[in-house]
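Worked problem 6 (solution included).
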Amino acid sequence: MNRRRFIQRTGLATGALLTAPSLLPACSSSDPMSRIGLTTVVFRKRFVSTNPEASGDLLTLEKIPQYLQDRFGIYQPEFWSEHFESREPSYLKGLKEALDKAHCTLLNIQADTPGKDMSDPGHSHLAVEEIKEWIDVGAFLGAKMVRGSFMRYSLEEGIRSTKKLVNYAASKGLTFLSENHFDLMSEPEKHTQVAKEVNSKNFGLLADFGNYPESTDKYEALKLIAPYTRLVSAKTHGYDKNYEHTGFDFDRCVRIMEEGGFKGVYSLEQWEGGLPDYDYEKIVDWMIRHVKANLS
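Solution. The predicted structure is:
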């Protein structure tokens, strides 16, 4: 469905949102769970769209809000665009009802645009229009933020596209995010340059613990981007048989963000090649404990 038709059918004209999500301030609650979210990426093995061979206890986005509440005490889900079955209004209405029923607030939509790059000169408009559609979806669902990608080509073109998307997100009451995503934004100096040039209350960086090449010192990179970060993908990869994380010093990453002034939400994520035969609930339990232990 194109964006104009979507807006017409859902009534999401500028300034006339069904809900008006607030910008994301620092979390003020004394409850540490107010600073923890969880992305559906963790459970990609249980979604047919990301694992066609999935069977057994399957998940859908409609099931996620109540599942996260019941199993983990998390009320800030993050939806990956790959897990949406549709962007039709009837489907989105069901998602909004599921969020409301579970008293959950959609933290963010991780909007991927395969084959479309917002920094590709001459073709960036394709990614921009696609991401605008996800911003419309986020507005309908009452999301706080939408993360766009990718930026692999021209930093200058990427900044121009980002400014367009920030303005559009602002018109819907959302914050637009730029993530280090194994692209230009995985160079922390360029990531912070985008933040400085865009310079908007409706924009911020998304810091992903796992999305730096081996040649980059992730800890120094996180120190550099922490002051501009609005959301953290607290990603892990690599677990031993006792479900202890072996990939890198996760606790140090959380402490760096806290010391850098980040007071927002850590959205828990797990990723590595393939679909390892893990108990992903145990992984989430581990991440919750370790985020809580390192909050300042």
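Discussion: Confidence is low (pLDDT under 50) at residues 13-25.
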